[in-house]
Here is the input.
Amino acid sequence: MTDSAAMQANLLAEALPFMQAYENKTVVVKYGGHAMGDQALGRAFARDIALLKQSGINPIVVHGGGPQIGAMLTKMGIESRFEGGLRVTDQRTVEIVEMVLAGSINKEIVALINAEGEWAIGLCGKDGNMVFAEKAKKTIVDPDSRIERVLDLGYVGEPVEVDRTLLDLLARSEMIPVIAPVAPGRDGATYNINADTFAGAIAGAVQAARCLFLTDVPGVLDRDGQLIKELSVAQARALIADGTISGGMIPKVETCIEAIDRGVQGVVILNGKVLHAVLLELLTEHGAGTLIVP
Ligand SMILES: Nc1ncnc2c1ncn2[C@@H]1O[C@H](COP(=O)(O)OP(=O)(O)O)[C@@H](O)[C@H]1O
Ligand SMILES: CC(=O)N[C@@H](CCC(=O)OP(=O)(O)O)C(=O)O
Here is the structure.
């Protein structure tokens, strides 16, 4: 056997204790819009999810698609506006958000996983009464004046009810759920939910063993751009308050904190632009990214 074959075999053997630890456990993987787009990365991601399912682990994929929504809005001559990392969403925008997220992106990911020989099923919060949302009640503190301001984000929602019936059913089946962060309200409206927030709510409801957030940066970075390997909840809050964490990283880190509060055992923000990031994180010693702990 060559050295390189032996190394590969060692790597496979190294996965065994991790596979045993995660057997029958649920892992929620949030696949961010920035981590998509590259064909090889997409295929590697799909293969990782397929391999988890084949290993007796229960993966649930929640995806985003912020940049893809932005591109479609631009095509239609609609400007994107964000406040506190969330897209200000009027009636026209929410229709496009649903079309892009629950339509094209969702089916693209389903097709990628199915091409690896698995059975993925595309869903959104509307399916099986899985998630109900309410209009988001968001406030932000202006970093200069320190004055708190209530945001009106239109049809941006927060998940308020999660019913795990359908997810439990799928966990016992061959199916891998791939979920778009769109949900109905009890008021009959359709809400656009930040994909991180949505993934955190799902992870909390199913008491996931791990929730991974795949993005386009190595994890949470400090003021000098260096990766922070581990963050306590209190440290994370301080970095949001002092502006080190900004933009889309705000809902991501807030979600991590909420997921931990809801009993999710481990939450990691990592670079989805690294090939096989999911396998490296879960099944090898080479855990990457920022681990957020209580
Ligand atoms: N302290 C920070 N560390 C890392 N990224 C940060 C930080 N503050 C802001 N960001 C921004 O957050 C982005 C990740 O959030 P987002 O764009 O919503 O990603 P995704 O689409 O993957 O959910 C990064 O690309 C970076 O521009
Ligand atoms: C309310 C809100 O901001 N919703 C997001 C939903 C998609 C998302 O979160 O995608 P990423 O994970 O790729 O950022 C949006 O409209 O862009």
User: Anything to note?
Assistant: The chain has a mean pLDDT of 94. The chain is about 40% helix and 25% strand. The first helix runs from residue 3 to 22. The longest strand covers residues 26-31.
